[in-house]
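Reopening: RNase H type-1 domain-containing protein still failing for me.
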Amino acid sequence: MAVSKESTVIVMVLLFLLGVINVTAAEHDDQTTSSHNQVVDHNKLSNKSTVVMNRNKYAYATMMYMGTPRDYEFYVATRVMLRSLAKLHVDADLIVIASLDVPLRWVRAMRFSDLDPGDGLLMHSATISTIPMHYPSLSTNHCLLVDGSFQAGSFGCAMLSLSRCSSDWWTGVSSGSCNSALEAEMLAIIQGLRWAIQNRLDDLTIISDSKTVVDAVCKKRAPEEEEDGAKVMRVENLNNPYKKQSNFDWRFMLTMNKIYVWSLVEYERVVMLDSDNIFLQNTDELFQCGQFCAVFINPCIFHTGLFVLQPSMQVFKDMVRGLENERENPDGADQGFIGSYFPDLLDRPMFHPPSNPTTLLNGTFRLPLGYQMDASYYYLKLRWSVPCGPNSVITFPSAPWLKPWYWWSWPVLPLGISWHERRRQTLGYGEEMGAVLLQAGMYVGLIAVTRVSRGNMSKLWYRGVRVDKTNPFIQMGLKLLAVWSIIAAYAVPFFLIPCTIHPLIGWTLYLLASFALSSVSINAFLLPTLPILTPWLAIFGALFVMAFPWYPDGIVRAISVFGYAFLCAPFLWASIVRVRICLTNSFEKDLFFTRLGDSTTTTSPSGINKLFKGGVRKNYSTEK
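Support: Ran it again with your exact input. Result attached.
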């Protein structure tokens, strides 16, 4: 989450005032810090163990696990969803149920920042730990403890002043509006600074539990909220007993970890989410739903990409026993397992939020379709028009390689740009831009080199094949090499470009890369330029046709795309025929070798040509 301009100004004022005041942070000892990495074992869970210390009654939860070809992509998608929820000012905690093999670097990136720093540690019990804490040794006569809290756009600050020389103490509180918990912590420190200035204290230590703010002060720069403000619950992977089913999909091997959400008994309600959700608006009214609520995307099967539940250790343990006893599961994944646990949900009433926001319903309910709008509903009319409930959440239960975070998914699927717009507003693309700039520089350099050495690259082949130019195996090998170089020019960039980069950057880099690699094929095998670049022009035109923003509906868009493909087909076929004829004439009729060895083709040969031709004449004289 980006720091607002107001927050930056506050930090600048803070840094100016710190010329006479020393600010330190209270740090826990190693025993307390180790509670961050507390591991949850489902065999040891109980009502009094391994809970998350929280101030909210509700939570949005998601899960992360490793072992798929797309682990990094789902990690990025999870972070974007968490930051999108924080940007909507949801009145709930954000929880990530992460398996033990999730890299610690990823875990740290998702942890506290937009939630109040210093709160929400994973503790051994719901009571405050009695382990002694080591506070920093103070060399000043006065000590000021400050803390700030943030919730739904409002903050509250409290402070307590103590003196080493006397029993005097002073307290103060303030409140107002701000943009984040980080800003609330800064405002708490500024309140303490103002009090110190008013009382002319220059021998003062301010203690804050916000490590982010203190680090920013020590580095003398504005803090960067790199973390996502989530509370991470690390768990052991649950065994999936359905992996031997004939219809089992190995992508869902560890999705049974989703049932850990029922163990979050410190919350009254939890909304469980998959990472491929886009939130269009705040959905906190879902916490008023009953013990279990879900959306029926399929007419007969509810979708587990979003559901509401009331945590219960009894339900959790019963589900674990169901796994051990191999409860009936049609698909071998969380969808079929949870569906078999709530088989009567289709007959339950529709959820309608009570007018009183504090009222919590009992029982099970069907959620309106607006809470899980399948992206395929959008493509028919190119707009959202779901009459059942508020249009709040978009989900993408599509093919794995067409998820919205892949750069090639847009403009093939128009909604992909919506997901990337949320990433641009929240997480950004800093992690991928280094690789993008490196590749762009490499392709520009490749174009420049092939342009300068035009006509000379293929001469490297001549001396090796001149003697055996009639050998059919060499001719066939050269033709295959030429064909594969053309195919590689259009295929290789897909595997090199960072797959979660913004589509506009991704497609621009792809066009640059395919043009650069095609130039190599053209110059190396003396091929005609236009036929080789015809697919490049066709791809560019297809992107324009698919991305055209003024189609009245999806049917007109589909007809336009198919019409464009129909018009392009003859040109693509003609280019293939032209390249085949060129290769045949060059290799089978010796035109390729003749052009290479013909000294009259260039009136003013370059240095490379002179060296090449000199070598040819010398060899010819020796043989003669």
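The longest strand covers residues 142-151. If you still see a failure, please send the error message rather than a screenshot.
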